[in-house]
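Problem statement: downstream parser choked on a complex file, so we are re-checking the raw output for the NAP run. The parser issue turned out to be on our end (a line-ending mismatch), but while we're here, posting the original submission so the record is complete.
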Amino acid sequence: MRPYVIIYVTASVDGKIASVSGYSRFSCEYDLRRLHGLRALVDAVLVGVNTVVRDDPLLTVRYASGRNPLRVVVDGRLRIPENSRLVNDKTSKTLILTSRHAPPDKINSLLSKGVEVVVLDVVGYELPMSKVLLELSLRGVKSLLVEGGGETIWGFVKEHLFDEFRITISPYIVGGRDAVTVVGGNGFNTDLEFVKLILRDVTVCECGSEVHITYSRR
Ligand SMILES: NC(=O)c1ccc[n+]([C@@H]2O[C@H](COP(=O)([O-])OP(=O)(O)OC[C@H]3O[C@@H](n4cnc5c(N)ncnc54)[C@H](OP(=O)(O)O)[C@@H]3O)[C@@H](O)[C@H]2O)c1
């Protein structure tokens, strides 16, 4: 059985998760506590490599108490910077999932730094999220928090591979066509496809000037 998948984003009211220049600190302290509380509950937390390049996140539990989850990066071309905190911070394990096109020298260098790198058997650079989830469940991961960014979230949404979609709407309007949106990718080919994916079981939590919405699919 695949892991239980929670997608979590914090977005501006116009649905952006980062500005063109990369600003993405939309969370208030309450939102950070909620996000870190979830990190403490799940087995693993996952981001795409652009988020690592742009934000250099730690993905540990700091605004709540509890254990750190396994940190997972989807990185088909193995672009992760070797000086990133996910590579060098030892407070939790980091697993990078990549493709056969990853440069062997870089794989070896990352392994020597204590990072686990797994090459998935796929054609091309794109790792289907069904294979990502299979790999994680083989490692005992039963619950996964997907924190973004937009391209990575699309990988889960397009295959309908999530159980909860959680979004905090924060009081900013970013504007612009080139800012990063909650869900990237090419979008569904037909309207029928997204209509079929209608989200139900909504709960809404207001905190200060933010609103947190949880949609559950199970
Ligand atoms: N506000 C929030 O809650 C929040 C949370 C997280 C991130 N962010 C922001 O989001 C921005 C980044 O989002 P993004 O959409 O540009 O990028 P992203 O989702 O972080 O990373 C996308 C990249 O990761 C690799 N990747 C993702 N899925 C893959 C797959 N299935 N197979 C193989 N490789 C895969 C690809 O790398 P290649 O291009 O090399 O193939 C892809 O271009 C950052 O600015 C960050 O600040 C905001």
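For whoever reads this later: Residues 9-10, 17-18, 22, 24, 26, 47-51, 54-55, 74-77, 79, 125-127, 129, 147-152, 155, 180, 184 surround NAP (CB under 6 Å).
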